[in-house]
Amino acid sequence: MVFRLAIGIVATVLAVALAVGWQILVVSDFGSVARGFTPANWWFLILGSIFFGLVILGLVLLCAWLIREMGHSQRQQAFLDAVTHEMKTPLASLRLALDTLERRDPGPERRDAFLRMMDEDVERLHRTVDHVLAAARAEGAVGGPLEGRVELRALLEDCIAQIREGHKLDSEAIRLESDGTAVVRGDEAEFGLVFRNLLENAVKYSEPPVEVHVGVMATGDRRVRVQIADQGIGIPRGELRKIFQRFYRTGRDVQRTASGLGLGLFIVRDLLRRHGGRIEAKSEGAGRGSRFVVTLRAAT
Amino acid sequence: MPNILVVEDEAHIAEGLQFNLEGEGYAVELAPDGRIASERLAQAGPGFDLVILDLMLPEMSGYEVVRRMRAAGNFTPVLILTAKDDPADQQAVPPRRAARAGAGRVAATALGRRIRRRRRCPERRGR
Fold it and tell me: Which pTM does this prediction carry?
């Protein structure tokens, strides 16, 4: 990849040098100009300039395309690694637990602990498979906007309860502020996936004690805004948009101090777009928490 | 009682290994990331009889842990436990440095066999 990029860059530089050098030769050849600039000279000049211009343009495009592809394939590789890890780890853990229970009698207390661990492993596998499938669906998603009516407060309470249970958080860790009247248009299951993903991230990227704030407010233009704010590690300014790309993972993820596939926010953004909604990430910078603002269409 | 250091960030696998190894009569110490493992190994010197090592670790990779302990003259046998099965990865740790229990094969019986074999033929000391 680096080799191909180098070829592109060298070729671009060469073409620019040739174009400049060649024009200097033609234009500065005053001897021939003094004898009269023939129509053939003019044609050479014009056509040559156009051709060189095209060559340079083509090479620049090629380079830009290559750079983009390199980023994409790197992210794809990182995704494959993450899926491999997220699937094989719980599988290995399950196999180890099964094997242990088969070979030894751990006593009732340890047996319960093993069963609990196995349950969590199955849940983790389930989540990973769900994410991969949702991303695959998002890829080919067409169809018009979905027209169901979703009561936001009830849905958010559900999602918050699930995340709280999954991470064993107390009731103060995630607070919801909503007047309870907001109803939006769309598919309840898909919005559930959106909010669970956002809450999961808010918790995952927070150092304990977790403090997440969820706010719902109606805006004037028949839209509803949901804000999910955390006091976590924040997002560097340069990454605020990149985090929604498929397979993108932040520096912390790449070193794998946090688990994940780099799919969550991609799925979130895709599902919201499908519903005519949008999402925006805001952060004061690394270490200063982040806010995700989701805008949805209010039901009439 | 032979001493084993288990370096594994996944709590479930670490606990499962610990339970099984203790059942086999080994003393087990757990390290949840590469940095802690490396510090522990530097402290203990040749105090461990075997290191069971995950490759994808937070803070410091398994490769780096092996590299550092070998550089410090610690030739305790290392058994690598990994879910990665990329051939490039398989070559990254030469066999002389560590033996490997392949792709997700953490079955306790197989592991027990591996450990006994690994401890019977420790690698050559020095170069």
Answer: 0.57
